[in-house]
Amino acid sequence: MNEQQLKGLEGKAVVVTGAGRGLGEAFAVHAAQAGASVVVNDIDGELAEAAAANIRAHGGRAVASGHSVADPEQARAIIELCESEFGSVDGLVNNAGLNYEALPWQDEPAQVKELIETNVLGVIYTGTAAADAMVRLGGGGSIVNISSGASLGQRKLATYAASKGAVASLTYSWALDMEDVGIRVNAVCPLAHTRMVWKSERSLRNCPPERTPSRIAPVVLFLLGDGAHGITGQLIRCNGPQLHIMGQPYLKAPILERQVWDSDSVQRAFDEVFGAHLEPYGLEKRVPPRLRKWTEGPSTPLRSA
Ligand SMILES: NC(=O)c1ccc[n+]([C@@H]2O[C@H](COP(=O)([O-])OP(=O)(O)OC[C@H]3O[C@@H](n4cnc5c(N)ncnc54)[C@H](O)[C@@H]3O)[C@@H](O)[C@H]2O)c1
């Protein structure tokens, strides 16, 4: 880490959820090194305490929370701890998350529920509690949600992808709601070598060990700090070497108009107009079968899919 990254959060109090290991721990350590007082939250309280003790041992200010973001009362308690210990709530990194791989027809309801409760409800409970404190204390703030490139759609990750899509939607909506009260809301889509990646052979192939969580931390630090003023409602992806903004979903032209759409006119709209406007889908940008015959190269015979 260079000197430049060690500044910028002096006097700020920041909550990082899921900060006992992996990306969250890196965000907490870097925030403390940049001068913030940090609530290090993790459902694994021992890990949270160890990470907070490590920050304190290096001269930083940190307190541990073993609360679960998936419980509204506990999520509020994480934010209250920040206010009672440090006197303000200036930043929140909504990082706690779970993932697993499953084919859609093998997905287990109990696993789906646990993931959605953590990745979606946890972000909502902690984010709304933080917004409540920030509005009441009157100092504005910055919320950084952790989404994922998987939100664009990935094989065997539908439930996880949906949860991260929800985080993207929350980011856009909260940014609209919170601009007038001085709270910026952005999201980061990281890729880093953590426990989450070790569990999946495919992720391991895409994410070599040198893509450490510390390489993502400067992006989160930037968004937490005042240098990011005027930046809100954005999804920013960083996978180590690459840093870019994710495009926003939008209403695509042409927008056809009829008083009423019946099944004949819908069929004609697709046959005559939309057939050529279908979008490649998923993170891998898969071309829909109906268009594929036009896109798979000149040698491919034209036959219907
Ligand atoms: N690693 C990647 O490449 C990658 C890619 C895209 C998005 N992400 C996201 O980044 C975030 C961090 O992931 P990671 O790779 O560091 O994973 P990780 O599994 O190493 O760490 C996640 C931490 O969250 C904690 N946690 C889980 N449920 C919790 C709860 N209810 N309350 C509080 N803490 C809880 C876990 O105990 C764990 O310490 C996640 O939201 C993940 O979806 C990671």
TrEMBL record:
**Where does the record place the Ketoreductase domain?**
12-194
Single GO MF annotation: oxidoreductase activity, acting on the CH-OH group of donors, NAD or NADP as acceptor
UniProt cross-references to CDD domains, sorted A to Z: SDR_c
**Pfam families in the cross-refs:** adh_short (PF00106)
Q: Is Oxidoreductase found in the keyword set?
A: yes
Q: Which PANTHER family match?
A: SHORT-CHAIN DEHYDROGENASES/REDUCTASES FAMILY MEMBER (PTHR42760)
Which family does the similarity line name? Belongs to the short-chain dehydrogenases/reductases (SDR) family.
Protein's UniProt name: SDR family oxidoreductase
User: What is the protein's species of origin?
Assistant: Prauserella cavernicola
